[in-house]
């Protein structure tokens, strides 16, 4: 049976690792937070007291961590994955981190004889719990093939995005587009309201016209037209503004490094930065409609 070490049992990692247990993988979990480890043990997982113990017998190491700096330390640190994982193990980092760090850690992994993919996700805690995440995977075709059966119980869509770091690139490009389209959709509703246009009437027209987009028809920022959206639940996340801002900052950092011109991405980052600075980082990102109207 494939042995998996799962490092980072937080909001995303805990439900993801539970789905691996349900799929009968032999999973050993590790997190710095004792309550997270205890929750994993309650779900039937084995636990380890240190990264070294978690990874020493593992065929696959999966990480779900907050930032690039933490990913680097977990893989490259003295007591970390590179120093203690089995030769030839497959390493999968599903954290959302900057492209440059993902490529750097992956190159070091390959130099040490491991296969490694970056495999960030979209779908949030709901998708992690339901096992319906979308994985965007960067790495060699061979590493992707090895990763697919491990990712399958946690996701409904697993796409090979190309070479190392391209999973992270796909993730931040998608989320930059999402931020821009959500702000655009919100501006259109706010202008329509100011001109006396009814929300539902505008929705019915635009959703069948050239303004149609996911932010309008699946995640509509006004209450009413799409019943299950955060707009109908006082803008409780969903996808919190602080998390959108994290992804936008990664996108802007990557754009700077690659010399790509992304003026609307930059403006979107500024708008979400202001919303966060006003104390609304915990509000769903579609709440930007109220922020823009000065009503949040
Ligand atoms: P989280 O903060 O809830 O979980 C991260 C976990 O990592 C925590 O339990 C923390 O204790 C643990 N950790 C930190 N340093 C560690 C170390 N050195 N060793 C072991 N464990 C360590 O975060 P999350 O919401 O689960 O997000 C994880 C990643 O997934 C992030 O990169 C985030 O951007 C990405 N993501 C999150 C969502 C979401 O909706 N929450 C959606 C998509 C992607």
Describe this structure in words.
It is an enzyme of class 1 (oxidoreductase). Helix content is 51%, strand content 14%. It has 14 helices and nine strands. The strands form two sheets. The protein has a six-stranded parallel β-sheet with strand order 3-2-1-4-5-6, with helices on both faces. Strands 7-8-9 form a three-stranded mixed β-sheet. β2, α2 and β3 form a beta-alpha-beta unit. The N and C termini lie far apart (52 Å). The protein folds into two domains: 160 residues, 3-Layer(aba) Sandwich (Rossmann fold), CATH 3.40.50; 124 residues, Orthogonal Bundle (N-(1-d-carboxylethyl)-l-norvaline Dehydrogenase, domain 2). The radius of gyration is 20 Å and the shape is elongated. The longest helix is centred in the middle third of the chain and has 29 residues. The protein is of the alpha/beta class.
The helix-and-strand class reads alpha/beta
| Mean residue pLDDT | 98
What's the tally of helices? 14
CATH topology name of the largest domain, in short, is Rossmann fold
The run of helices and strands is EHEHEHEHHEHEEHEHEHHHHHH
Set out the fold topology.
Layout: E1 3-7, H1 13-22, E2 26-30, H2 34-42, E3 46-47, H3 51-55, E4 60-63, H4 68-76, H5 81-84, E5 90-93, H6 99-111, E6 115-118, E7 121-122, H7 124-130, E8 133-138, H8 141-151, E9 155-162, H9 166-194, H10 199-206, H11 214-217, H12 241-258, H13 263-280, H14 288-292
Parallel strand pairs: 1-2, 1-4, 2-3, 4-5, 5-6, 8-9
Antiparallel strand pairs: 7-8
Active site: 171
InterPro entries: 3-OH-isobutyrate_DH-rel_CS, 6-PGluconate_DH-like_C_sf, 6PGD_dom2, 6PGDH_NADP-bd, HIBADH, HIBADH-like_NADP-bd, HIBADH-related, NAD(P)-bd_dom_sf
Domain 3-hydroxyisobutyrate dehydrogenase-like NAD-binding: 165-292
